[in-house]
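Quick one before lunch.
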Amino acid sequence: MQITVFSAKPYDRQSLDAANAGHGHRLTYLDLRLTAETAELAHRADVVCAFVNDDMSAPVLAILARCGVRLIALRSAGFNHVDLDAAKAAGIAVARVPAYSPNAVAEHAVALILTLNRKTHRAYNRVRDGNFALDGLLGFDLVGKTVGIVGTGQIGQVMARIMLGFGCHVTAADPYPNDDLSALGVAYLPAADLLRQSDIIALQCPLTPETHHLINDQTIATMKPGVMIANTSRGAVIDTRAVIRGLKTGHIGALGLDVYEEEADLFFEDKSQTAIPDDVFARLLTFPNVLITGHQGFFTTEALSAIAQTTIANVTSFQDTGQPVHPVSPKAR
Ligand code: NAI
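Model of the NAI complex:
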């Protein structure tokens, strides 16, 4: 099949070409994001392969349908950026990569937590500057602390096991509790109780109407003073302006973000030669207890290879049977 790959970086090209060996699909790589302005570039493509910040709203899908696109193969687990009803109406199937390496994302969330706690990001710069003072680098023992995980799907489950390994008391909120985790001692709670009781809150849920701005002024007010929040899920699970207010009062003790509400205009590109136009993001960068990474939770060798293999398998299955291996339908939300 003819596949147009949007938001394609050199590492995507490498992994997709390797996965396509033996399948014979024809791939065209575009560094551009998929938007209403770029969608026409998919003309004559059967498949559009898209990533997390590509725009798959109804107007873009209408253009893709006119181009003859019949499948969107997402290189991601999350599909909140696709208007599934509009895709169905346009006759475009949607496929995703449900689980490529939950370890990659969970381990990155743990990296954020460990760094914020022991302040290795600050220590690194200090020591290189010949400053060996410890003031400001005080952390806490993780053992015995309460870690609340919102969403115990593929990633949240790995996260729970890692934090149990640190000797933490792990609680979780999920409409579908996981029996294996319960057997390991993870206590399922209503989200409001979890947010109130946690020393560390890890967000591992999808972005849905229910989780949109789950972290807001009201819920922050109920949290323990000094709480640490780590978000590797989707930016809009957090109301960014509310966490800035919480950071300014000190109620939020540390914030680790791999995702950001308005990341589409920033992440995955080198913006080091330009001013950051987003004042809210720029304000976040001023806090010493905020650590931001640019949506790199998925970025391991193993995960890239698995994403590419599942993406190509979705396309081949669609070609052979009319159905991708991992379809997403409107009822999946
Ligand atoms: P998953 O679909 O396996 O698990 C999601 C879990 O969240 C499910 O158990 C579900 O029941 C639960 N959930 C749904 N609504 C909830 C709610 N209102 N409150 C609490 N839990 C709720 O997904 P997976 O693979 O664990 O990924 C989770 C999210 O992580 C993805 O949706 C995606 O947004 C994000 N992600 C981020 C990556 C990164 O690079 N930072 C990479 C991959 C995923």
